[in-house]
C-alpha cells in the first residue's frame, strides 16, 4: 500500500515554462526533476528512454508524481499503469503558469490531496481537490487509517461503504480504545460521531471501532474494526524452525493478550537470523517488516533478561527475543516471554505509528 505522506517525489515537465516552475517547487520541497533533452540544466535529469518510459519507471518507484502541463497528457500517459487508489502513487498536475494545482490520483491514501495543498501553498494559489469527502467537508476512513497506520479486514469494501455514508450525511459513530485517545484526537474525524461507551450507543447507522483488541462485544449495527499497528515481536528460534511453528506460537501469544494479529507492526531478531527462512516467510505472510539487530545492539539490553549460555555461545548474546522487542518498543514490553520448542517470543507496544 502507498503512503499518505509522499517521501519520494518525481516531477516531469516538457516546456521552458515548466522548467521555470519546477525550479521554484524543487527549491521548497525535495524532488527529482525530469525534462526533455533540450531543456536539461543543473538540477534536472533527461527522460530515460522518452517521456512515457520515464513516467512508467517513476510510477513504480516513487511515492508521488508531479506533472507540469496539460491534465490530458498526464491521464493518457498514466492510464496503462493504473492499479487502484490503494497502490498507485499520488499524482498532482500543475499548469505551467502555476495557477492550478490539481490532485489527480490517490488523494487520500497516496497523499495527493495533502501534496496538492502544500504545493498550492508554495505557489500562493488554491488547490483543486475533488474527492467527495473533502468537498463535503468530512473525514474519510482511508485517511483515518493512514493517520493511525492502521489496518482493517476487507479494507476496500469498508472504505467505499463508510465514505459513502459520511458524504450522504448518515450517522457513523467512532469509538476507540482509551489508550489510543491521544493519537485519535490528532486525527481528522469530521463527520464521525464520537462514541464513548459501546454499551450505550447513540442512534447510529454504522460504527467504526479503533482498537487493538481481537474481539469486541456484540454490536447491534453494521460495524468495522480499524486496528492500528502498535505491536512488535522479538523472536528467537533454532536454525531451520518451520514458519508454521513460529506463526502458531506468535498467534497464540497475541491471543493470550487479546490482541488482533493486524496490530502487529514488525518482527525483529538478531543479525545471524537475517536469512532464517521461517522468519522471512512469517514477515511476508503478515505483511510486516523484518528488523535485524546486531549482536552489539542486543548486548546493550542483555542484562535485562534471563540469559542462555547455549544461545550466547551460538550467536554471541544470551537472549534474542527480549532485547529485540525492547529496542523496537523502547522498553515498553508486554507480558512474559514465550519459550517453547526452540522458539522465544517477546511482545512490545510502540507509543505511536
TrEMBL record:
Q: Name one Pfam family in it.
A: CbiG_C
- InterPro entries attached here? CbiG_hydrolase, CbiG_mid, CbiG_N, CobE/GbiG_C, CobE/GbiG_C_sf, GbiG_N_sf
Residues crossing the lipid bilayer are none
Taxonomic superkingdom: Bacteria
| UniProt KW keywords | Hydrolase
Give one GO term, molecular function aspect.
cobalt-precorrin-5A acetaldehyde-lyase activity
Q: Where's the CobE/GbiG C-terminal domain? A: 231-347
PANTHER family in UniProt: COBALT-PRECORRIN-5A HYDROLASE
Supply the enzyme class, top level: hydrolase
**To which species is this protein native?**
Kluyvera ascorbata
Specify whether Membrane is a keyword of the entry: no
EC number(s)?
3.7.1.12
Keyword Nucleotide-binding attached: no
Q: Where is the Cobalamin biosynthesis central region domain?
A: 140-218
Q: What is this protein called?
A: Cobalt-precorrin 5A hydrolase
One GO biological process from the UniProt record? cobalamin biosynthetic process
**Where do the Cobalamin synthesis G N-terminal domain residues begin and end?**
55-134
Amino acid at each position: 500500500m502507498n503512503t499518505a505522506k509522499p517521501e519520494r517525489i518525481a516531477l516531469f515537465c516538457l516546456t521552458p515554462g515548466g522548467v521555470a516552475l519546477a525550479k521554484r517547487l524543487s527549491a521548497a520541497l525535495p524532488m527529482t526533476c525530469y525534462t526533455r533533452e533540450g531543456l536539461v540544466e543543473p538540477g534536472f535529469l533527461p527522460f530515460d528512454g522518452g517521456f512515457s518510459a520515464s513516467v512508467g519507471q517513476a510510477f513504480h518507484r516513487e511515492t508521488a508524481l508531479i506533472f507540469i502541463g496539460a491534465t490530458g497528457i498526464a491521464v493518457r500517459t498514466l492510464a496503462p499503469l493504473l492499479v487502484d487508489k490503494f497502490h498507485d502513487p499520488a499524482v498532482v498536475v500543475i499548469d505551467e503558469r502555476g495557477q492550478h494545482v490539481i490532485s489527480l490520483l490517490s488523494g487520500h491514501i497516496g497523499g495527493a490531496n495533502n501534496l496538492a495543498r502544500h504545493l498550492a501553498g508554495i505557489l500562493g494559489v488554491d488547490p483543486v481537490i475533488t474527492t467527495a469527502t473533502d468537498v463535503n467537508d468530512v473525514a474519510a476512513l482511508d485517511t483515518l487509517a493512514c493517520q493511525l497506520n492502521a489496518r482493517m479486514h476487507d479494507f476496500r469494501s469498508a472504505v467505499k461503504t463508510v465514505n459513502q455514508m459520511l458524504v450522504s450525511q448518515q450517522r457513523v459513530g467512532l469509538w476507540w480504545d482509551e489508550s489510543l485517545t491521544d493519537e485519535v484526537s490528532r486525527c481528522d474525524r469530521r463527520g464521525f460521531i464520537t462514541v464513548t461507551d459501546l454499551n450505550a450507543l447513540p442512534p447510529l447507522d454504522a460504527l467504526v471501532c479503533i482498537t487493538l483488541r481481537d474481539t469486541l462485544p456484540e454490536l447491534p449495527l453494521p460495524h468495522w474494526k480499524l486496528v492500528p499497528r502498535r505491536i512488535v515481536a522479538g523472536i528467537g528460534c533454532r536454525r531451520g524452525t518451520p514458519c508454521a511453528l513460529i506463526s502458531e506460537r506468535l498467534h497464540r501469544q497475541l491471543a493470550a493478550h487479546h490482541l488482533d494479529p493486524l496490530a502487529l507492526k514488525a518482527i525483529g531478531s538478531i543479525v545471524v537470523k537475517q536469512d532464517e527462512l521461517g522468519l522471512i516467510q512469517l514477515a511476508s505472510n503478515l505483511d510486516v517488516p523484518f528488523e535485524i539487530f546486531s549482536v552489539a545492539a542486543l548486548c546493550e539490553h542483555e542484562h535485562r533478561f534471563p540469559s542462555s549460555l547455549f544461545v550466547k555461545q551460538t550467536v554471541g548474546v544470551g537472549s534474542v527475543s527480549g532485547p529485540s522487542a525492547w529496542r523496537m518498543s523502547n522498553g515498553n514490553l508486554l507480558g512474559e516471554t514465550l519459550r517453547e520448542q526452540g522458539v522465544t517470543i517477546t511482545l512490545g507496544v510502540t507509543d505511536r505509528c
